[in-house]
Amino acid sequence: MKILVIVRQTPDTEAKIQTNSAGNGIQTDDIKWILNPFDEFAVEEAVQIKEKSNAEVVVLTVGSDKAVDAIRTALAMGGDSGVHIKDDAFADMDTYALAKVIGAKIKALGDIDLILAGKKWIDEESSQVPLQVAEELSIPQATLASKVEVDEGSKTAKVTSVIEGGERIIELKLPALITVEQGINEPRYASLPGIMKAKKKPCEEVGKGDINGDEIGISEGELGIDGSRYKNDAIEIPTITRSLKVIDGNDVQQASSELAKLLREEAKII
Amino acid sequence: MSEILVLVDKAQDTVRNVTYEVLAAALKLKEKNGASISAVYIGDNAGSIESDLGKYGADKVYKIENPSLKDFNPSLYAHALSELVNKVNADIILGGNTLQNQDFLPRVASKTKGGLTTDAIDIDLTSSSTLQVKRYKYSGKSIATLSYHDVKPMIATIRLNAYKPVEAGAAGEAVSESIDIPADDNFKVIETNIIPKERPELTEADKIVSGGRGMANGENFKLCYDLADSVGAGAGASRAAVDSGWVPYEMQVGQTGKVVSPNLYIAVGISGSVQHYAGMGSSKVIVAINKDPDAPIFQKCDYGICGDLFDVLPALTDEIKKLG
Ligand SMILES: Cc1cc2nc3c(=O)[nH]c(=O)nc-3n(C[C@H](O)[C@H](O)[C@H](O)COP(=O)(O)OP(=O)(O)OC[C@H]3O[C@@H](n4cnc5c(N)ncnc54)[C@H](O)[C@@H]3O)c2cc1C
Ligand SMILES: Nc1ncnc2c1ncn2[C@@H]1O[C@H](COP(=O)(O)O)[C@@H](O)[C@H]1O
User: Which of A130, A135, B101, B279 could disulfide-link to B110, CB 3.0 to 4.6 Å?
Assistant: First the structure.
């Protein structure tokens, strides 16, 4: 069985951000980049399935040169090989265009039984790429999995998914795509030997010329940023403007009654 | 005339409030370009929903009803909506940013070659009738304005509580749409468990009381629940409280938890980290209870009490009850 994990690199969530000079993106020069925290759960899940069966785990990302670090992190956690799709033409694509590129490459790979992804990219929080990949490949999906059980014999996966107000159990025929909820497992830290080994694992580099758009019905011209459906007009970093009326709590009764009153009469909220 | 489609979210026999919020967003667009608004129900049994939907702005209600749409199946729902889009002149599709809509609209965008953006906090039309969306980006640290290229349909989900329902009109007209739903052997729902909740769902709640590391243990959360119940609020938590095992993950608010947007958010024993704020910063009024005058939350709130939460919570709950 072959499992593909799609992962993305993201600026460290602790990083302070500043807008770029064009005002439609952020300055990325001095930022530390990490593997999207949500994708760590997907990588861990793939490696755990591998440890139970004898699956092979391939890690794929679309991103610039430095995105290879995200693949290396996943390989250090136990992935077997990487696919790094990089081309200047692929910078700044929206999810729709990204899914086309990823979908085309997965079709070309051909023999993937299960695709795992994080629930969202922590930056954009769009949660679209994986599901659009599933659509491109016409395969079933389950989202926000809190448990995944793969049955290689019947080629199915039994998935427990978080839904509004509860959960449900779904059976998917493989090949299928599953996004995992955070907390489905405890992602392991990459060990030092793991990191050393990861450096020697194979990683295929893929450029625009290697992607066959015909496979998923997209023209050459649309493969890349021109396939995007929307653009960023502007980015603003909001300043927090709040009234900051903090009451001293030494006299609790007094403070509580004052707060209750403010909420009733000034904020008109209770 | 072009149509704005609004997805109906129905639980048991009632249309959920989020649908009326999204209709309010659609009305804002209608004022600009005069498009008509059509609500779309997908499921196995619509019932007579048109009068309520009409009251909040739907001119028409499409009902796509089929026994195989009883359980939500993202592929089949995407198929149903895409077929409707091919039949009618829909430029814009709007829905609440619910888990279900997030689950199948990406497939609709791919099927129809449309564009989708999620979790808008505001929407508008440009002079050329292109949809423009404001949404948070970079872990909630910035707000991006996005506009669609020349694509149709332009699809957006809207953050819950971002718009207030507006009463707008008369009963909508019901139109039954018969759409062939293919069999799907690849996806089978085995079991659905809805866990009954004592308090409002966080993403929909009008008010929320959340506890953090300052609560010190799980039992003390009772103090938060008492305050929550005194104002009919949902109950949330910081990641520190969840990671300590005091409360379940589904209560976590923040960048890696739920994103909420209530009218009132009370943060108790929560320091106000960037990651927590990412999940509740768009709340209308933020109240902080913390004993540390230098806690960052005091720089991000509207009201606060600087004091020990174990004294403040019972006293505040009492005072609120007194107000009645
Ligand atoms: C990638 C990433 C994602 C994250 N995602 C989230 C997320 O989704 N949600 C989230 O919440 N955090 C998240 N975090 C964690 C976040 O950085 C903080 O660690 C966390 O929010 C702290 O929780 P807290 O405010 O409850 O605890 P603390 O920061 O420890 O604050 C506790 C506060 O309680 C006060 N206090 C203590 N005792 C009392 C008392 N008796 N009376 C009154 N006040 C008292 C203290 O003064 C202090 O201000 C994330 C972190 C990372 C790196
Ligand atoms: N550039 C990319 N390359 C590979 N996988 C991606 C990429 N972008 C997003 N993904 C996957 O899609 C998930 C959701 O991302 P998003 O739809 O952007 O919120 C991520 O957690 C990844 O698993």
Answer: A135
